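User: I'm preparing a small set of examples for a lab meeting where we compare how different chains pack in three dimensions. I only have the primary sequence for this one, and I'd like the structure in token form so I can line it up with the others. Please keep the answer compact; I'll paste it straight into my notes.
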Amino acid sequence: MADIYKLRERSPETEKITINVGYVDLGHIDLLVREGFYSNRSDFIRTAIRNQLGAHSDAVKQSIVRNTLELGLRHYSRDDLEAVKAAGGKLRIHVLGLASIADDVTPELARETIESLTVLGALQASKSVKAALHDRIF
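Assistant: Understood. Below is the structure token output for the 138-residue chain.
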């Protein structure tokens, strides 16, 4: 009989958000979808967001540098935090994108090693770690 291995769950590459749109605007979106300009409402909204981000790209780049933000995905493993603890250090985490803290990180280790946490985007961590850091999340 073959061995069965559990695959590591893949992190989602998107975050679901909810927006309120006026009926007339929604009608315009539906018309553009029906006419084939976009495949669905979500496609229209993602395109609109990308266009606005492109229009403001210089301001975004300047703000990233000014706020010393890491751009993209930043994962903190238990080993990473244990090394910070061993060195007597504290982390000031600033991420634009996705910051994730490994599931095997205890709330105690997180509090001992993370001084502050600023995430523009999404934070993936256990509920207990988020609760332990609640006063340090900005």
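A couple of notes for your slides: The longest strand covers residues 91-101. Helices lie at 23-34, 41-55, 57-66, 78-86, 107-113, 127-132.

User: Perfect, thanks.
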